């Protein structure tokens, strides 16, 4: 191996292991070496048991080929609010060691993935204070949240893929800030068994990878089947049509930054150069109320029930912000909560119809580059709407600020067109990130890193 | 004590303990005696650890009074799909011993409830084969499902209250078959953390008790707060107006039985005698499609993701019916699933408005008495619609078939008017069950049993 395996994608490792050119043990050693080198800088992990990682790797190597699963050779990081020894970054759950995997962990473990450890999250994946994780492109900056450590671990080549979750923008935001792919599938398409509940109508498992090929592999493992399977050969961009949607938050205070505006314009130019049609559209005004009002009414209303057990048993160990949910500090009436449910439900078929008229909607992931400081994980104002609409979203990296920080943009499709979205995303990524060596450098990479794969 | 404490309601036990007239240890001993006497007949329990029950009871007795919670003296049975040592009646989870309580268990434990054990359920709370539990009124008959053991344990005086769940009719049906109160609150009003997921949009925690007072106490513990609190003194029936809704399933094959028709007519007569206004209404035809189609599209679509982990890891140990969910045997397209979401979402504010014009909707719980045989747990055709609509429902017992089997009827209110519904239910129960000794005998009771309390 000329290059340590932690710099490869999951799919590349899986292929090399299948061809007997690499062992899972070597993969584990490479990732542990990177972890040793970098964890004191970027603090991605809440829990790694190196002996367990190595012994599991050896077990995987000992498995006869016919018993190996589709993820054999991939290394998984799991957000510390998804069952597996899980602590939610809350003192209440300090000794919480559930002995049954979350559904998604069970699926990936059975498919042969090597579970590397638990990644840092904000307390209960809330918007509370950030965890110690910091941005691999600039450790003075936040990696985003709440799936902070998952974004860092994948970006920093410490695992090949990772689980996050998204209630507002907790997958898309770290995707953009850390310069990696971040996929929030249709709400409900992947089981949430074993994920701590914040808002039952919003929480969605998120996936982080360094390649679209890896996302496609995971979508297959999780059986994300559209009614109409996407074409075997992806539709070329020259036949594609994209709707550019700035959303009502673009012009808001702390809305679009200069670096977002620059990425936005460049992205459209690149798509047009590839022959695609790009159309600026505005959503009907009824979508304007989702952030910050309607979505928040639903979320806060649901969080009132979600944190009652911790509030009753261990109030003093619960962040004041989360105590506030139970105490209904934001004064969300049941009427407002129901209005949230009903208005959002009415908007979902409308966005399906609008998005269905294009190959994808292109929309911002975040207002701009990752802000300085790790106390605050950044704003979800530009991506929370899509979570509430329950549509699939992917952050595609490919742009950078003047400070050399990554910026991505989001592609959106109608609900349950996850596979089609991934197919389109692969072609868009080629245009934005490039596939030639000279284009691959249009965004910088974390220390020692090689390029993102399309 | 002239009467063993297991025949008392939770509230009665709590009061006696507070007055130093009863110890939790004595309560535990009384319940264990009943369990010893009856479990070989009715098979309510999947797991009871008598040493643990007794040692926990002694701990509760040792607690200084100022540290005691509002459920101190109550005895809880937990459906075996809610975390606590949990097996889901599936061999896959035989040794599953999660070491963190489900949210609802944590809340009740902190409130001082004595956890008695885990009650039998159908496999993963599905409509698959019934568990060994049988009806305390006639062991040849089903107690209903999937919350079979919970219904039995409360009806048979083996615990004072129990948790079930409802995805179709799994709380209301055992409530009716076992002659007890069964309350399915508004979807989302109580945390589902630690409840195995079947259908995320349908699954709801259910509560079984032998008194409305106990339900009111639990509603307080779970903080089921309406926007407008119900009146301190419940509104008298003479000022109430009830909408009688047969639903489209009344006239369907296997719809209303003669015993249901008789209960229906008698119930209206009793309400009218108490001075209430009773109006027969028909719901708009758009509600007719919910059962069996639209609700099922949503449920089957969601179950496809819910059982994938077990399917991947342990397919052979999973009931064929549940394997079928993952394999999408019912051929639910994503389009149908989304239609399920969107049509139901549109109907919810409509039913809120209709129900809001009355003090409650009165509607059947089940087609009739508990059928013979314990293999099949009965039909949800008359109650599943309300689960899909996410409105709060209560089964009020009070009627009986010629075979002496109990039949209840359901009261329904708009979403998040749970407290108001409980307030009305108390008055309705007085009319249906009666409060005078001569009226209390209008339904029979399980062996050795005393009466239901209003």
TrEMBL record, chains A, B:
A molecular function (GO) term: catalytic activity
Pfam families found in the cross-reference section? Amidase
InterPro entries reported in the protein's UniProt record: Amidase, Amidase_dom, AS_sf
**Chain ranges of the Amidase domain:** 31-422
Q: What Gene3D superfamilies does its record include?
A: Amidase signature (AS) domain
Q: What is this protein called?
A: Amidase domain-containing protein
Record organism:
Kwoniella shandongensis
- Organismal lineage: Eukaryota, Fungi, Dikarya, Basidiomycota, Agaricomycotina
């Amino acid at each position: 191996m000329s290059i340590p395996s932690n710099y490869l994608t999951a799919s590349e490792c899986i292929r090399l292991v299948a061809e007997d050119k690499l062992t899972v043990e070597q993969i584990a050693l490479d990732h542990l070496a990177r972890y040793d080198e970098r964890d004191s800088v970027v603090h991605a992990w809440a829990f790694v048991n190196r002996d367990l990682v190595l012994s599991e790797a050896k077990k995987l190597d000992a498995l006869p080929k016919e018993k190996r699963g589709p993820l054999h050779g991939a290394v998984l990081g799991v957000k510390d609010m998804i069952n597996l020894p899980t602590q939610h970054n809350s003192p209440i759950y300090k000794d919480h060691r559930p002995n049954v995997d979350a559904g998604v962990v069970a699926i990936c473990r059975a498919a042969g993935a090597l579970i590397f450890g638990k990644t840092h999250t904000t307390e209960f994946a809330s918007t509370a204070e950030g965890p110690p994780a910091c941005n691999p492109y600039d450790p003075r900056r936040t990696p985003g949240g709440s799936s902070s450590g998952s974004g860092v671990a994948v970006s920093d080549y410490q695992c090949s893929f990772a689980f996050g979750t998204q209630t507002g923008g907790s997958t898309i935001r770290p995707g953009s800030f850390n310069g990696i792919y971040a996929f929030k599938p249709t709400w409900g398409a992947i089981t949430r068994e074993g994920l701590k509940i914040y808002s039952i109508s919003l929480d969605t498992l998120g996936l982080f990878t360094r390649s679209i090929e890896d996302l496609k592999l995971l979508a297959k493992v999780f059986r994300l089947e559209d009614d109409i399977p996407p074409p075997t050969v992806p539709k070329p961009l020259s036949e594609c049509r994209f709707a550019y949607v700035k959303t009502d938050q673009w012009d808001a205070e702390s809305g679009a930054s200069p670096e977002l505006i620059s990425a936005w314009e460049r992205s459209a130019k690149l798509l047009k150069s590839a022959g695609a049609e790009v159309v600026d559209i505005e959503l009907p005004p009824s979508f304007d109320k989702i952030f910050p009002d309607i979505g928040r009414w639903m979320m806060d209303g649901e969080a009132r029930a979600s944190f009652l057990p911790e509030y009753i048993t261990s109030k003093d160990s619960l962040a004041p912000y989360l105590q506030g949910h139970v105490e209904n500090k934001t004064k969300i009436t049941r009427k407002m909560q129901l209005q949230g449910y009903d208005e959002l439900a009415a908007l979902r078929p409308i966005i399906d119809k609008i998005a269905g008229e294009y190959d994808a909607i292109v929309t911002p992931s975040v207002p701009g580059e990752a802000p300085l400081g790790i106390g605050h994980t950044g704003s979800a104002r530009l991506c929370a709407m899509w979570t509430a609409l329950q549509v699939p979203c992917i952050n595609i990296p490919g742009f950078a600020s003047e400070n050399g920080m990554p910026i991505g943009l989001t592609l959106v499709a109608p609900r349950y067109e996850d596979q089609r979205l991934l197919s389109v995303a692969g072609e868009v990524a080629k245009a934005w990130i490039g596939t030639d060596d000279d284009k691959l450098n249009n965004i910088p990479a974390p220390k020692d890193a090689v390029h993102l794969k399309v």
